[in-house]
Design goal:
The protein has 33 helices and 16 strands. By secondary structure, it is α+β, with helices and mostly antiparallel strands. It has 4 domains: 6-167, Serine Threonine Protein Phosphatase 5, Tetratricopeptide repeat (Alpha Horseshoe), CATH 1.25.40; 175-304, no CATH class; 327-425; 567-576 and 617-800 and 810-838, Phosphatidylinositol 3-kinase Catalytic Subunit, Chain A, Domain 5, CATH 1.10.1070. The strands form 5 sheets. Strands 3, 4, 5, 6, 7, 8 and 9 form a 7-stranded antiparallel beta sheet that branches. Helix 8 (142-155) packs antiparallel against helix 9 and helix 9 (157-199) packs antiparallel against helix 10 (256-266). The termini are far apart. Pfam families: FAT, FATC, PI3_PI4_kinase.
Length: 842
């Protein structure tokens, strides 16, 4: 490079040569000259995105070594310039910017850079990061993220509205919950500060008082007042961004009276006073200020797009209130869940019903037949209440079942009764004009079909597909005890999108949306790698639109069927009870549970029961028969097999990579025409320390029926090679940095919501403002990311150096990592240790 004659090149190429020179010098550890080479490249041609990114990487590296904040600001500025000039690859670098912003240092260099360059970036690059930006509103970087969201609210209101509205509702609930705890807290805190000042503690110790309204969300603020000989205690007033505007410095020895007066005056507006954290990492913004910030953004959106906001409000409140399930359907879902719980309980079937299950049952009886239900659904209560409570309420001691087996039988009976009632009495298809007159007459002007902003490309607001009307028929979709209404949204171009309305969500529902975000990132990576691109690897990503905090719309395919349905259809054809294998399995294990058998013998018992079921009850060709029957020709079958194999491989890869368990067959949906797979509840679980928790012996679900359908050629040829190329494309040198930051943002949000959901009984880490200590928190995120990347590297094929190849051992297959996993997933020893509701024999 040094000897190249630069006169023959145009400016752009000259700059690129200087950039390459910088890269080489950096590899040779000549940092000074590398820096000079990069700055020369930029001076020659400042529109070269690659040079900006390389220079940014260099600055980031220097910052990590020196911890000097000015380098962090340089790095973020370089990344912004790189995005500005080379927009196509922007998303990957935005992950990095948001990560640096989330764990910014005290003087907020990353935040300053963001405020400086925000105007120069096209606004659509932020669209795919809306959920992350909203979650940041209750962290220290709130003021910077608020600016970005205000911009989006003006230009792309529909990309933001659904999420912002749900976020506001959730925050409002939390803010009102903590309101009561807050007043008591402020009094306690004043007393504590006065006490500190009076005692004039000489050694710098931190007093932590954890007082809260005792609610489940850990929004109870922990106030830490650090007091040393002459240290200053600072209070933050009710100012929204947590700026140090209203700050009074109280010297250690000043009068306690002034100290007491201050918090009560600033706390009067009900906003919390975030105390300065000991390690000086900025301010923690409280639940109330996050709510205020979100409210400001919503007001800006409404004032600019008034008509649109009103239309969306009508649409969402109608969907949220009109298309909820009926009490019978809810009761059926509850009975189904309880039945599963019975199968999962590690109690002998002849033993008595465990205490915790009794508690749940009495809770169900109270909830389903509460005073509210009595007023609203008179017929429902009249019909079911007496019998249900006689059979299943632990308080009616004379009629309550004595053993677990008896309870299971009763629940089965109720499930059948309710199921036949629900199917016979309610029409399979509801009419829109009967369900919601407002939506029937709804005249849409501005609303677009939801979900058009996920492509991560520029979206011209006038090129989007508008919503024309809601389809007249609303079929009821029933899957394993739960019922949903399926809405059809018809676009102005005649296209139809089907959404099912899911109600009564668990707190984990947001994790599903985060997983889909991660899938979209991975799809871009698969698209850029040779091996994965030629196999057409792409994870299916349906659209999820939040309606209320408990209701959401999930894009649905008319051809979806669950894995368990295939099995149930087969049982119905042969007139067998679908749950019989579970019952047999449980009965054979009764002696193991009572503790008379050694652990090794338990494994043998389970294996024996498993083998018996696979031999006599469940064949391995059920799935193959089903697909042969419903697909019209051999060509269809071949194509389906190929596409389905790739989808199975990708879901296995994701299960292994993020250690996601619990893949029971009722959670796996596949489209019967395209083989696309969508999984419910597909997200990692965390242990009390915030690390991914996983305790299943099989790495993913690949059971006998799938193996028989694909045959060994399909498993070894299609599935193994697809998993290998997926792993390779994600950790390829080009993507390895990007995947790191994308995963870091994923885990940041996951662990944030995990830390709020945690029960109060685990005081394992100091929780401040519903938040873990920031250094700890960053470490947890990094540990999880490193863990995931190590796992991917274990199975991705890698090149061996020459001297390793010439060693005397026989050469190993490049797919070795994946084939070991597949063997583990298919081994009957591992399968028999799975929970019976997982249907390991199917």
């Amino acid at each position: 490079i040094n000897n190249t004659n630069l006169e023959f090149f145009p400016v752009k190429n000259k700059a690129e040569i200087f950039r390459l020179r910088g890269d080489f010098l950096l590899k040779m550890n000549d940092c000074e000259n590398a820096n000079v080479a990069y700055s020369n490249a930029i001076t020659l041609f400042k529109h070269l995105p690659k040079a900006w990114i390389s220079w940014g990487n260099y600055c980031d590296m220097v910052f990590k070594e020196t911890k000097d904040e000015i380098w962090l600001e340089y790095a973020v500025s370089c990344f912004f310039q790189g995005i500005k000039y080379g927009v196509s690859n922007s998303r990957s670098h935005l992950a990095r910017i948001l990560y640096l912003l989330s764990f910014d240092t005290q003087n907020e260099p990353a935040g300053r850079a963001l405020d400086k360059y925000l105007e120069q970036l096209p606004h659509w690059v932020w669209l795919s990061w809306i959920p992350q930006l909203l979650l940041s509103l209750q962290r220290s970087e709130a003021q910077h993220c608020k600016l970005v969201l205000l911009k989006i609210a003006q230009v792309y209101p529909q990309a933001l509205y659904y999420w912002l509205r749900t976020y506001l509702m959730e925050r409002r609930d939390v803010a009102t919950k903590t309101e009561m705890g807050r007043i008591a807290q402020q009094r306690m805190q004043q007393a504590m500060l006065a006490n500190n000042a009076a005692n004039n503690l000489s050694e710098g110790n931190a007093r932590t008082s954890n007082l809260g309204g005792g609610n489940m969300t850990s929004d109870n603020q922990v106030h830490q007042a650090t007091q040393s000989g002459g240290a200053a205690v600072s209070h933050d007033g009710g100012n929204l961004q947590g700026q140090e505007s209203d700050r009074s410095n109280v010297e250690g020895g000043t009068s306690a009276g002034h100290d007491q007066g201050q918090p009560s005056s600033t706390g009067a507006d009900g906003s919390q006073m975030p105390a300065r954290r000991n390690n000086g990492l900025g301010w923690v913004t409280s639940a109330a200020s996050a709510f205020d910030a979100a409210k400001d953004i919503m007001e800006a959106l409404r004032s600019k797009h008034t008509n649109l906001a009103n239309e969306l409000e009508v649409l969402l409140s109608e969907i949220g209130s009109r298309f909820v399930t009926l009490p019978e359907e809810r009761l059926l879902a509850v009975v189904n869940a309880l039945l599963h719980r019975c199968y999962k309980y590690p109690t002998a079937t002849t033993g008595e019903v465990p205490q915790s299950l009794k508690k749940e049952l009495s809770g169900v009886c109270r909830a389903c037949f509460s005073q509210d239900a009595v007023n609203k659904h008179v017929d429902f209560v009249k019909e079911y209440k007496q019998d249900f409570e006689r059979d299943l309420d632990p308080e009616s001691a004379t009629t309550f079942p004595a053993t677990l087996a008896e309870l299971t039988e009763r629940l089965k009976h109720w499930k059948n009764v309710l199921q036949s009632n629900v199917e016979d009495r309610f029409p399979a298809i509801l009419k829109l004009e009967e369900e919601s007159k407002i939506l029937r007459d709804f005249h849409v002007v501005d609303i677009e079909l939801p979900g058009q902003y996920f492509t991560d490309q520029e979206v011209a607001p006038d090129h989007t597909v508008k919503l024309d009307r809601v389809g007249p028929d609303i079929p009821i979709v029933r899957r394993h005890g739960s019922s949903f209404r399926r809405l059809t949204l018809i676009g102005s171009d005649g296209s139809q999108r089907h959404f099912i309305v899911q109600t009564s969500l668990t707190p984990n529902a947001r994790s599903d949306e985060r997983m889909l975000q991660l899938f979209r990132v991975l799809n871009k990576m698969f698209d850029k790698h040779k091996e994965s691109r030629q196999r057409h690897l792409a994870i299916h990503t349906p659209i999820i639109i939040p309606v209320w905090s408990q209701v959401r719309m999930v894009e649905d395919d008319l051809m979806y069927s669950t894995f368990l349905e295939v099995y149930e259809i087969n049982c119905a054809r042969h007139n067998r009870e679908a749950d019989s294998p579970i019952t047999i399995f449980k009965e054979q294990l009764n002696q193991a549970i009572s503790g008379q058998v050694s652990p090794e013998a338990v494994v043998e018992l389970r294996l024996q029961a498993y083998n018996e079921i696979t031999k006599n009850i469940v064949n391995d060709n059920i799935f193959s028969q089903y697909m042969h029957k419903i697909l019209p020709t051999g060509n269809h079958l071949w194509t389906f097999k190929k596409q389905f194999a790739i989808q199975v491989a990708l879901s296995c890869f994701m299960s292994y990579m993020l250690q996601i368990g619990g893949r029971a067959p009722n959670k796996i949906l596949f489209a019967k025409n395209t083989g696309k797979i969508f999984q419910n509840d597909f997200h990692p679980a965390y242990d009390p320390n915030g690390m991914i928790e996983f305790n299943e012996l099989v790495p993913f679900r690949l059971t006998r029926n799938m193996q028989a359908f694909f045959s060994n050629f399909g498993v070894e040829g299609l599935i193994v090679s697809a998993m290998c190329s997926a792993a390779q494309s994600v950790v390829s040198p080009k993507q390895s940095q990007h995947i790191w930051h994308h995963l870091a943002m994923f885990f940041r949000d996951e662990l944030l919501s995990w830390s709020w959901r945690r029960p109060l009984g685990i005081p394992s880490v100091p929780v401040a403002a519903g938040m873990i200590n920031p250094l700890d928190f960053q470490q947890k995120v990094i540990n999880n990311v490193e863990h995931v990347i190590t796992r991917i590297k274990l199975i991705s094929p890698h090149y061996l150096a020459d001297e390793e190849e010439n060693s005397s051992e026989p050469p190993q297959s490049v797919q070795r990592g994946v084939t070991d996993l597949v063997e583990a997933a298919l081994s009957s020893r591992n399968l028999c240790m799975m929970d019976p509701t997982w249907h390991p024999w199917f």
